[in-house]
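TOKENISE THE FOLD
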Amino acid sequence: MSGPVATREPDQATDDAFLGGALSLLQPRAGYRAGLDAVMLAAAVPFPRDNSPFRVLDAGAGVGTAGLCLARRVEPARVVLLEREPELARYARQNIERNGLAGRAQVIEGDITQPAAELATLGLAPESFDHVIANPPYHRTGAGTPSAVALKAGAHAMPEADLAHWARFMARMAAPGACATLIHKAEALADVLAVLEGRFGAVKVLPLHPREGEPAHRVIVQAVKGSRAPLTLLAGLVLHGPGNAFTPEADAILRAGAPLSLGPL
């Protein structure tokens, strides 16, 4: 995944290349900026072996990085990007158009905490998605110094109890037997598992390690709605090798759009 490309947009935005240049996304220059985590999240979404269309909801989509990486990588995916911030939703719409994905992706402005009836009027019917993905804010409100940029602060931090809202929303939107996948910091794994309990089962946890021998700093968690199957802790993925270069496995995901398999569902 490369950084900003040469083409310049207005001063408040950058034009960034993802998936080795296969996807070009506008992002706020001073706000929350998506990167490796969103690409890894998208890569972890499995798709039907018969290549049939399947619906994916990207909750809290921001400018659409995860959802649009999935749409670019997997042709059968039909992606809905749910974003509450009008500015980020505007970028997401532009990103859909400029990448030629208007037929397979759409933006809905809304919030995960809205009543089900309100979300339904926006086009988000309960239990209507084959997969729900999310990259929730990693930090608790009040812990550390918040960003002076409002969009960045909201994307990075949320009240402690809000993680349960994300799990409840994902369970509400996922069809029976459908999957939910999220990425979070490794130290929050116990909280993630707690909010999934009773809603999802067959949980798989994939640790992401910055380097060989270092503790995981991120975890990808995937689960099946309504399943009672036990948890599986997978062998971790190492992201960087010598000289800070990406490992061949990570590079294939980030630059070539390779899938990140968490095993059979």
User: Anything to note?
Assistant: The chain has one domain: 13-256. The domain at 13-256 is CATH 3.40.50.150 (Rossmann fold).
